[in-house]
UniProtKB/TrEMBL annotation, chains A, B, C, D:
Gene responsible for this protein: thyX
Assembly, per entry: Homotetramer.
Superkingdom of this protein's organism: Bacteria
Entry-linked PANTHER family: FLAVIN-DEPENDENT THYMIDYLATE SYNTHASE
Enzyme Commission number(s) of this protein: 2.1.1.148
Classification via HAMAP family: ThyX
GO biological process terms held by the UniProt record: dTMP biosynthetic process; dTTP biosynthetic process; methylation
Organism whose genome encodes this protein: Megalodesulfovibrio gigas (strain ATCC 19364 / DSM 1382 / NCIMB 9332 / VKM B-1759) (Desulfovibrio gigas)
Pathway the protein acts in: Pyrimidine metabolism; dTTP biosynthesis
Protein name: Flavin-dependent thymidylate synthase
Length: 243, 243, 243, 243
């Protein structure tokens, strides 16, 4: 029952991602067929810089649906159920999450909030609670199995598991949904854990497709001002002043 | 910190629901404008039976998108976080859920799985665990507040809260999404709690719009056979035999 | 075969719309159950002004999903197929459109672009073309019926129908989707016809729910600047200057 | 202004598609982390047959969301606007379509319905109409440009273009959405053109991922009976008889 570490692994990106976005944008305004142009695109006959410049220009004019053609799939472990409950609220995405109904959670791992980890008294209290929960889980599972509940004992016993309990999840989002996710969850208003997850995902996106993600992040970084209002702003960017 | 009871209240249904579905279906196949016909529809000049028969006939032919024009909004309390995590996986829906980051969970309520409730030894163990969690929550919150964490103490302390912790949520689904939700969650394979929630929602839907929901429920009730396979079937309907 | 006029009729709005949005927002931050508070809300015990102020404040902080609980359904006639092809690209919405496969389009109505309507030579050429198309439709339908094509003659003959051909459609969008639709389609970059449709829908939304829609419209009206870039701006608002 | 031929080119498939679906399914029921297992999966240490058998088994039990992690992107040309209007009604998908507002449609190509193509009198009438429309488009464009309408002349003149006018579109759908699309559009009730498109897409899917798409197609092929009802059935499968 160790404390869990978040790990995010990129399982898949749509191949030829920049060319695909470029081709989709071009098809909107082009007389010819991008299916025809495709072999030359992937052979690099139109430079990555030219493609990136075109994509940037159309994106800036507010036309962003073509970035949807590219998706990223991540395998995530070492995140709490609190975090995945926030994650799966993003509906334009696909999720396959480890089930607490079917997977045995004896000796579950858990996440420790940083403010607790750096406070020895709080950490001790937190860990004592985790230990008690683990023992309750095991005892309940045994009692229910003894009462003939079979495989369903796990789904009953899970009711004691904490929000801190570690989960694993496979996540696919297209680039438009990712940009939206980052705009909300890289913001300092997001909870530390989902913000950490968003930042990990963004780093992988930047490696794979810098032309699209280099400038991505919280909304303030696109807007040049903080849209969260006086009550919530972190102060990194000025609030919007209506001219 | 009492044990919670599920309550589902219907807050809103699209008005003139049957007429709206009828009008939408008619518009697909009709030369005239249903906007023109609308006052006569809502005045009852075409009988509810005639409308229902038309809707049923087109639905049976596999054309189901017009039922999307009608939505139901429910306020739900007395459900566990385990249950809402299953609920919000239904993506064609809108959710507003009580936040454990902002709401104080001292003396949280909790749900008890029936197999635990009817097993005195299990119930005692379960309740002892809930009591321990509540005291950990309060002590952690106090420790973190004392350490200057302010309002964020709640969002850290919530990591000890159990999956059993009670939540409240406002849910809106359109009728197509509801029919899909019922087909999966009224099935005996669904966990007891989300199945209970689905059945409560279905009862309210049947009251408000019997023409659409009288025959709704688990997939087997539409199909006439169980699609869950030998391993998972509850035996209520025969498995499908490929002719 | 007259020239068609657009008509938009509001068929349905979610009842108690402002209270529903207020209740959904409240549930996120409130200890109690909004299902409990609901009868007092709809009885007006919390004033419309108080509710509106709360909604505005949370919306401004960037939390906009609760407005999804309210939907509007419109019946639309007198719009071209060009316009509906743009409309149905908005995917978070439900549509029931008059089918050219099943509805007889002999003597179809059509839309005339304003720049053609005010140019006598262009209008004459346009109308001559419409007349020729109508006669081709009728002759093809007769020829195909004579060849035994039956009811499918219509779906073949429709291939000659112009983009100008009038269509009828029932549209449901929730308020979040509506605000997005207005932000794009009330903009002067949108084509005249879908912009006219968006403005008609916005006027009906403003009547029904002014607290939410009074300030809605093109993106510039929210942002205070034009995001469309130098090449596309209409000049009504200044371009964004990065500070 | 030749008659157009449909061409569908597969631009992209999510890499390691079968392993990705397998990994996503496994994560739901597996204690370990599929991110850990991933290098061995893509190295082929678990055979394609084993993976396929697992996927098939879970799919059959009604759990189909993990197939969403894999997407296909197609470039399509040689389809009519009638066809793309049907295509884009599938909302869980991404589209980038050639714009008739921005692309010059002088000498547009067009599609000819087969029942017209094989009927000499109908074909002659159809082609005469296409010729008249092309000349109207050109004359209107010239008249509007002469009247100072500039680049917007195209978006006005396009109102005469027929439903038959050829379009090009880039389409991305995930596998769950594709299976649904095929179930409706490979059915003989679908119009010949979108059915041809669906069959072309299905053939490409079968080549790339036979484990998932070998058995895909119209609903009857999964159900073993025709769900379209007596009025619409093509007779290939028996109607469902309620046992």
């Amino acid at each position: 029952m160790p404390c869990a570490q978040r790990r995010v692994r990129l399982l898949a990106v749509t191949p030829d991602a920049l060319s695909l976005i470029y081709a989709a944008f071009r098809q909107c305004y082009h007389t010819g067929f991008v299916g025809e142009m495709w072999p030359r695109l992937v052979a690099g006959e139109i430079s990555r810089d030219t493609q990136a410049a075109f994509v940037r220009q159309v994106l800036e004019s507010g036309h962003d649906s073509p970035v949807e053609h590219v998706s990223f799939t991540f395998a995530v472990e070492g995140v709490s159920r609190a975090c995945t409950h926030q994650l799966v609220r993003h509906r334009i995405a696909s999720y396959s999450q480890q089930s607490q109904r079917y997977v045995d959670e004896t000796d579950f791992d858990y996440l420790v909030p940083p403010a607790i980890a750096r406070n020895p008294a709080a950490l001790e209290r937190f860990e004592a609670c985790m230990t008690e929960i683990a023992s309750a889980y095991q005892e309940l599972k045994a009692l229910l199995e003894a009462a003939g509940r079979g495989a369903k004992a796990k789904e009953d016993a899970r009711f004691v598991l904490p929000q801190a309990a570690e989960s694993k999840i496979v996540v696919t989002m297209n680039c438009r949904s990712l940009l939206h996710f980052f705009s909300l969850r890289c913001c300092s208003r997001a909870q530390w854990e989902v913000r950490g997850l968003a930042n990990d995902m963004l780093a992988l996106c930047r490696d794979a497709l810098p032309e699209l993600f280099a400038a991505a992040g919280a909304r303030c970084e696109q807007l040049g001002y903080c849209p969260e209002g006086e009550r919530f702003t972190c102060g990194r960017y000025p609030l919007r002043t209506i001219a």
